[in-house]
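Cross-check.
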Amino acid sequence: MQKVKVLIVDDSSVMRGIIKEVLADYDDINVVGEAADPFAAREMIKKLNPDVLTLDVEMPKMDGITFLSNLMRLRPMPVVMLSSLTTKGADVTLRALELGALDFIPKPNFKALTGSKGAFKSNLIEKLRFAGEANTKNLFHSANQVSPQKGESILNFTRSLNANHIIAIGASTGGTDAIKKLLTRMPAHAPAIVITLHIPSVFSDRFAQRMNKLSAMTVKEARHGEQISQGNVYIAPGNQHLKVAIKNGMLICILEDSPEVNRHKPAVDVLFNSLQPLANNVQALILTGMGQDGAKGLQTLKSLGAMTIVQDQNTSLVWGMPGCAYQLNAHRQVLPLPEIASVLLDNAKFGWENINKGLADG
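Predicted model, tokenized:
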């Protein structure tokens, strides 16, 4: 068995001890070292060559974001951040994801941990295992490319849409950068987009605000009962499922505080399943991410005539969600990330009936 070698970077000896204790129960994970600050971590990385880092944000001598930026520029590797669930923590964590962090887990307080380590343990183990399989080549590429400025790479789109044409996107936390790259290419009057992303509530609105500043489309956190309109992007609020419904011939957002699906809320399968009555007018897409959420929903949409797309393995940081959908043959197209925006627009321009007919004939 190939063990995932983990280096813990945290200034708190208590937190390092808790993480080490949690990981000691698993044969496929090996804690190779602990560092109390980024300078010690730098030397340990050279010496121990870990596969994955757990990284705290607030540390002495150098903060976690500065360290992460230097790390991704010089020696990219999978990093799972430990983040506080606050507005400030959300901004810092989103910045970390932009810099190349693969994912994050909420950093629990000591009182919560003494009561139960269960949720923290399962979350940490799952993310470290997937991080151990991450595409480090893409980490380097993502970390060292210049992000486009607003309006710099917008695609042309001139055709008016069929009524209620909609694009649905599913991704996990690590897909935030992929979503950014896609949205910055979409023109202001592109088809309406609904997104389910595995992030908690304090993050979803902050992420929507950041995307709104970068995208020509209007990006917002979805609101219950809100009409879905061309040129707008609706992101599921953390801790609520997002569905799409038809009311008086119009599409509207439905928010639902129901149990987790696939251990997620919001869940991609919930969004995709709600689109079944609209399948002939839907483009559904799964981007890079951990787990299998969305795969079955995508498979059903395909069977009902929807255009279904998965991001390819070569451009995915983690080919978990798209890879699972691929294994189920839930896709009609497998695309590298740089091509997805243009293909979505071409599909919308070409006409939905012609797309389905062309695929069937081919």
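The longest helix spans residues 118-131. The CA atoms of residues 305 and 357 lie 10 Å apart. Passed to J.P. for a second look.
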